[in-house]
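hey team, just a heads up i'm posting the complex here instead of the shared drive bc the drive is being weird again. everything in one block, sequence lines first with there labels, then the predicted structure for the whole assembly after. its two chains so it's a bit long, scroll down
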Amino acid sequence: MITDFRYRGASVQKKVFIIIMFMIMVFYVVLIIYPLFNMVISSFKSNKDILTTPFALPASVDLENYRTVWVDKGFSRYFLNSLIVTTAAMAFVILFGSMGAYGISRYTYRASTLIYMLFLSGIMLPLKAAIIPLFLLIRKLGLINTQLSVIMIFIAMGLPSTVFILSGFMKGIPLELEYAARIDGCSDFQIYRRVVMPMTAPAVALVTIYNAVPIWNDFFFPLVFLQSNRLKTLPVGLSTFFGQHSTNWSLLFTSLSLAIIPMLILYLFMSKYFIKGMTAGAVK
Amino acid sequence: MEIKKLRKGAWITFFVAPGLLVVSVFILLPLFMSLYNSFFSWNQLISDRFVGLGNFKRLFGSYPYKDRFFNALGNNVTWFVMTMLVQNSIGLLFGYLMSRRIAGNQVFRRIFFIPVLFSIIAVGFLWGLYLKPSGLLNSFFNLINQPDLRQVWLGDERLATLSIIFVNIWRWVGFPSLVFLAAIDAVPEECLEAAYLDGAGEWKLFWRVIFPLIIPSITIITVLTVIGSLNVFEQIYTMTGLDGAPNYSTDTIGTLFYRTAFGSVDSGSPEIGIGSAIGVVIYLLTFCISLASIYVTRKREVQL
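-- predicted structure starts here --
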């Protein structure tokens, strides 16, 4: 495009502008990368070295700290718990969400708008603020200190945006395909499963990332509902660990690296999908 | 005909019921119960008697609730203003530069987005360590021979909130950047080229052509900032603790709400009534301010 900032052939004034802006962006890149880099090198250093020579590279790369945190301090358990909770919640978010979106967008009936609004009522209001009645409810259901409690809440949290994005997408799938399947003797469920869902796959991928990242990272609900150390998810486990080892910086940086690096690696391989997925709610 | 209609109804129910049930029980019901609970006085976890707006009166009118509440609300306002001014302006600038395909823009967009994916907990604890008096930031000022710039970032009442806000901005800038990038990319090329060929300078091109056309995305980012600012909790929890140390200077409605609901400060026991009242206030504020910002930005929206 002719409005692009191309350095070559630009006027001197524009060249200066481009260089300054480029430098600002490079500065911000350093501001993001360096703290992460320092976190990793610190995890290989002793407490004394972290405080006296914070910018120096570690003398040796020894994975002993990682073994301590991962095995002895139970981070493998926290990691597994996060995986269980996120996977279970996401499976039902996608199942119930796509079914709901199908029921709203593929039939014409009067109550569909009302049902749509009911699903969407939770999209803007933070569920955190309803923690008191949620706590009383979960207690009444006998679900305190069970993974089911946070799984149910995460499903509820994920459904509004899922129904919103998927029903918008499903509306665009031509009804003629449905008629054809119906003549071939498909039931409504088979149409949902065999015709509409395969065509919705790209939107499902988007919704999965949009919801799975916040669920994986969520701290508040596991903090309230999962008190037993055996059940804690990664963010809550990390918080407990910080409370217990607040002076052992070496171990703290190791635990932070263990919490952050898996997501970073996943992102490096799938950055395009993550960017698309995470901004899906704000970009139509 | 009747049977066909009935079957259609049954299928619709089959599809929407499971999701609707979960949303009703875990979102809608708690929402209404918050309001309902706030009208009662509570003795631990048992509701005592109906007090009408009594909880709200105590929250807005009596010590220590009043002082804590308005102190926290003030900090939430600081969060909102700073996030709008700093984070979203930088986001707009970066989004614009990347949309003009500045050198390296593909790399920039990927790197800017990295911290967005990390949990607030990990980011909060990481920067909590870096901002300690003996942490990395102060060491850096030693390294460049500017020891006067060293501060007790999280221990100084005037600095603590701003420090935490900047950590949050560090984590979040990539998000508005990419939202604005997508919005500017969606502006039809002809518009830009026409304005450019008519001799509009860079500055004019941005404010007269691009800005009016990306108002919808500005609305969305503003609403998300409102919601985010009213929900600040984890950032405080990890960096200065539930009490909003030092001396409540970093306290927010989120942390105040948590303390009131689960009882760890002031009275020591949970205050379900007052807590519910704060919950209702959070909902009302979120709803009203979001609506207001949609209204304000909508008015400036233009259609091609």
